[in-house]
Write the C-alpha coordinates for this entry.
Amino acid sequence: DKKNGTENLYYPNGKRSSIGQYKNGTKDGLWKYNYETGKRKSAGYYRNNKKTGKWKIYDENEKIINIENY
Protein backbone atom coordinates (compact mmCIF):
# COMPACT_ATOMS: atom_id res chain seq x y z
CA ASP A 1 0.00 0.00 0.00
CA LYS A 2 1.21 3.50 -0.82
CA LYS A 3 1.21 6.14 1.88
CA ASN A 4 -1.35 8.92 1.71
CA GLY A 5 -1.97 11.72 4.18
CA THR A 6 -0.01 13.22 7.04
CA GLU A 7 3.07 11.61 8.59
CA ASN A 8 4.38 12.68 12.00
CA LEU A 9 7.84 11.50 13.10
CA TYR A 10 9.25 11.96 16.60
CA TYR A 11 12.62 11.99 18.33
CA PRO A 12 13.14 9.53 21.23
CA ASN A 13 12.56 12.47 23.62
CA GLY A 14 8.99 12.79 22.32
CA LYS A 15 9.50 16.03 20.38
CA ARG A 16 8.30 16.03 16.78
CA SER A 17 11.14 15.72 14.24
CA SER A 18 8.99 16.23 11.14
CA ILE A 19 5.48 16.49 9.79
CA GLY A 20 4.49 16.31 6.16
CA GLN A 21 2.18 15.02 3.48
CA TYR A 22 2.31 11.91 1.33
CA LYS A 23 0.37 11.41 -1.87
CA ASN A 24 0.47 8.02 -3.60
CA GLY A 25 3.58 7.01 -1.66
CA THR A 26 5.63 10.15 -2.38
CA LYS A 27 6.29 13.31 -0.39
CA ASP A 28 3.92 15.91 -1.80
CA GLY A 29 3.04 19.17 -0.08
CA LEU A 30 4.34 21.07 2.93
CA TRP A 31 6.99 19.44 5.10
CA LYS A 32 8.35 20.89 8.34
CA TYR A 33 11.47 19.64 10.12
CA ASN A 34 12.46 20.38 13.72
CA TYR A 35 15.55 20.27 15.88
CA GLU A 36 15.57 17.77 18.75
CA THR A 37 14.49 20.64 21.01
CA GLY A 38 11.24 20.87 19.04
CA LYS A 39 12.14 24.22 17.44
CA ARG A 40 11.87 24.73 13.67
CA LYS A 41 14.80 23.59 11.52
CA SER A 42 13.46 23.88 7.97
CA ALA A 43 10.22 24.07 6.01
CA GLY A 44 9.22 23.83 2.39
CA TYR A 45 7.29 21.94 -0.23
CA TYR A 46 7.82 18.65 -1.99
CA ARG A 47 6.33 17.61 -5.30
CA ASN A 48 6.77 13.96 -6.30
CA ASN A 49 9.51 13.41 -3.67
CA LYS A 50 11.55 16.43 -4.86
CA LYS A 51 12.01 19.72 -3.04
CA THR A 52 10.33 22.58 -4.89
CA GLY A 53 10.13 26.34 -4.48
CA LYS A 54 11.65 28.18 -1.52
CA TRP A 55 12.83 26.26 1.53
CA LYS A 56 13.46 28.22 4.73
CA ILE A 57 16.32 27.09 6.96
CA TYR A 58 16.32 28.14 10.62
CA ASP A 59 18.91 28.28 13.39
CA GLU A 60 18.13 26.82 16.82
CA ASN A 61 16.49 30.10 17.85
CA GLU A 62 14.08 29.81 14.90
CA LYS A 63 15.74 32.72 13.06
CA ILE A 64 15.88 32.28 9.27
CA ILE A 65 19.52 31.76 8.32
CA ASN A 66 19.07 30.71 4.69
CA ILE A 67 16.51 30.39 1.93
CA GLU A 68 17.17 27.69 -0.65
CA ASN A 69 15.47 27.74 -4.04
CA TYR A 70 14.60 24.53 -5.85
Notes: The chain has a mean pLDDT of 97.
